[in-house]
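Can't paste images in this forum, so I'm doing it all in text. The chain is below; anyone willing to post the predicted structure tokens underneath?
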Amino acid sequence: MTNELSDPTEMRDIGERDSRLSKQPIAAGADLTRRSKRYQRWRMTLSAAEWGIEVVTLVWLLVSGKSVALRETVARHITNPWLVVVPYFLPLGLLFGCVSVAFSAIRAFLLDRRFGLSTESFGIWLADEIKGMALGGFLALIAIETFYAFLRHSPEWWWIWTGGIFGLLFLLLTHVAPIIIFPLFFRFTRITDPEITGRLERLARQSGTRIEGIYEVNLSRKTRAANAALAGFGRTRRILLADNLLDNFTLDEIEAVLAHEFAHHAQHHLPKIIAVQTARLFVILYGVHWVLGAFGNRFGLQGATDIANLPLVALAATALGLVFLPLTNALLRHFEHGADLYALEHAAQSRAFCTALERLAQINLIDCSPHPLIEWIFYNHPSIGTRIARAEKALSGEEQ
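Text version of the structure:
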């Protein structure tokens, strides 16, 4: 991304910002609710359509014999199993990459612009897509090479070795993302304002979390949406604050948002989430192992190590991932509720947490009251409406 960050010397005075924002009412009402629901409905519809096209394409590649034909074409020129992966994967990667870019253009560019969220030019969006495709393709190639290498060398226990390596790779990516991956798309400016750093460093100390620094991200070059994150792992862990958040939220609200993020460290959610996700990964890989044993010699395939079974592997992993999605999200929502209660307790102004959620819903066009079934299956956070209601109930109990 060719994002340009604001010069730190041009940052508005925090006190003036708080004074200005404290006088601004939070927009609400039926019009905003309908607009948010319409926006989120469009996003979900487009995501479902993209997913459906990808699944149909995988089935077509498998059943029509196109995947086997591609492998045979490659095998006529290359016999080394390590080298076969690249020429087989490239055309499939380009095919699915084109589908992804097409839907991204509709969802992340045209739709966001239609609803007043997008601020980026087509050139910036396209550059991001190209970089994202290149990075995603590179990581996918590493994963596929690793997957088939263990299949060849340990046919019975490959899923255990693969799960372990994938887990380590995930931790490595989490560690290096703030210093290697994020700079490909954003530029960061270290925040030195003592009022901001003082409050957020206090939260870090209370939660027992070590942070490398606090940075502003000029997200407004791309979108009007606001966001904040506690990114990285170990020595790369840092606070990232979008300029949209700094410009549209009071300092009390910013502190409340970050108190929620630090809660995950204080309540040891991260190792629990990693353990659950790792267990889920092993179960999915074992399921793929069973599918390859049952169907690895059908559709013209030549056993579990045949690279042409990649569509079958993807279909099995997708189906199993969808089965476990509601259970995983239910656990994540439980953790998020605990983090909300922590934020209410440790933020300087507890009620600022509620107003921060309301502003996030308003600015980001979040549906505050999705259908319960949609929330149960797809939401890894409780809905904004549920979070605010629980927070208000907790605050009322404190005040009595």
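The mean pLDDT is 89. Residues 8-21+28-399 form one domain.
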